[in-house]
Amino acid sequence: MKGKTLRQFIDDLYYNAETEFIFNGKKYIISGWLNEDETYTVALYSIEENSQEIFSCTSRSRQEVVETFEAAKIFDNRTIYDVEKNITVLYG
Fold first, then answer.
1. Residue 18: C-alpha distances to residues 28, 30, 33, 77 (Å)
2. C-alpha to C-alpha distances, 65 to 75, 86, 87, nearest whole angstrom
3. Which of 4, 21, 55, 60 is deepest in the core (most CB within 10 A)?
4. Is the pTM of this model over 0.70?
5. DSSP letter string over 65-90?
6. CA atoms of 42 and 25, how far apart (whole Å)
7. 63 phi, psi to nearest 5 deg
8. How far apart are CA 40 and CA 25, in angstroms?
9. Distance (Å, rounded) from C-alpha 9 to C-alpha 11?
């Protein structure tokens, strides 16, 4: 990963993250926020003309949300750990 370490990237997800990055030539943004009902959400969106939600998880446990993201095969059917060498962080 370029722009920050993988550990920093994951740690940021616990604290209302907003990180923009490039993976395989495509731009993405991952955001985390606290909801009114005290649940926590992390969502990943593509940034393109027809942007779409790639991943979303909501739970009362921030740890559960982050662990679900870590295990999700959302990057060409691979996890963040499998592709981190191909990610460049632009912001966040």
1. 10, 6, 9, 23
2. 17, 23, 21
3. 21
4. yes
5. HHHHHHH---SSS--HHHHGGGEEEE
6. 22
7. -60, -45
8. 29
9. 6
Look up tokens 């095969």; give the residue.
73
Q: List CB contacts of 28: < 8 A, sequence separation 6 or more.
A: 20, 21, 22, 44, 45, 46, 47, 54
42-91, pLDDT tens digit by residue?
A: 999 999 888 899 999 999 999 999 999 999 999 999 999 999 999 999 99
Do residues 87 and 19 lie in contact, with contact meaning Cβ atoms separated by under 8 Å?
A: no
Q: What are phi and psi of 26, to 5 degrees?
A: -110, 145
**25's tokens:** 């030539």
